[in-house]
Amino acid sequence: MFRIMSFNLLCWGEGHRNYKHRIPLVCQIIREAKPSSFGVQEAHIDWMNALKAGLPEYDYVGVGRDDGKEDGEFSAVFYLKDEFTASNSGNFWISETPDVPSKGWDSACTRIATYVKLTHKSSGKEYIHFNTHLDHIGRIAQINGAKMIQEKAASFGGVPVVCTGDFNVSQGSDCYETMISANMGDARTLASDSDDTYTFHGFRPEEIRDIIDFVFVDKATVKPVNFKVINKLIDGEFYSDHNAIYADIELI
User: Fold this and answer.
1) Fold of 2-251
2) Parallel, antiparallel, or unpaired: how do β-strands 2-8 and 37-41 relate?
3) Helix, strand, or coil here: 206?
4) Beta strand ranges found along the chain (DSSP E)
5) Of 82, 98, 166, 217, whose Cβ has the fewest other Cβ atoms within 10 Å?
């Protein structure tokens, strides 16, 4: 069984919620969950360096979305480096020119998707982990981003696929329905042991309780056993404006 996590870190934050103050909280959440692999959203280069320093058991693939190097937010995939071998990794931009840093369709921001094939060293089992952060404004860009992920996932010829991300849409939206078309499904609804908790709260859970973060899986090759939202404070403090989520999966 493998644990797949999605985690929007919140790039900056103000006052005591500035990212520098939340680094140990974020690392604690990840360390306690111990995912096999996890996708991050809103991770600028300082976040990436902090995660590498704070979680030395993980390595990652991914690039900054603004220049394809270190500038802008990463949608990186981290993995336990002693347990997995990474190969066939890459990135594409959610735009009409996916091979270069670019903003597409009606998108307000430059958006990127990252993927990697992970091979479990002891069992030889493998899966592709996609991760993305779709636009918060552009409905066409959201739908086309989902289509691009679906098409790229299909190109791996039946290798099990998982896809994490902040999709900035709710269940039932056009983008969500596109993601669960064909072979893909939502681990939240597929797992027999699931969690109906919200994922985005904006530090105001008494007012905001949105479900916009997901773990999608290829239903033909991946079985979600359980799904969990990490909805808690650490010493009275929020670790992000999103709750991290994870699914424990079996490869069929």
Assistant:
1) Deoxyribonuclease I; Chain A (3.60.10)
2) parallel
3) coil
4) 2-8, 37-41, 58-61, 77-80, 84-93, 112-120, 126-133, 161-166, 184-186, 213-218, 222-230, 244-251
5) 82
Regarding pTM above 0.90, the answer is yes
Per the CB < 8 A criterion, the answer to whether 133 and 163 are in contact is no
The helix, strand and coil proportions of the chain, stated in percent and rounded to the nearest 5, come to: 20, 35, 45
Identify the residue whose tokens are 């994922």: 199
Q: Where are the alpha helices (DSSP H) in the chain?
A: 19-33, 45-54, 139-154, 174-179, 187-190
Residue type, 18: N
168 vs 184: CA distance, rounded Å? 18
Model confidence over 178-216: pLDDT tens digits?
Answer: 999 889 999 999 999 999 999 999 999 999 999 999 999
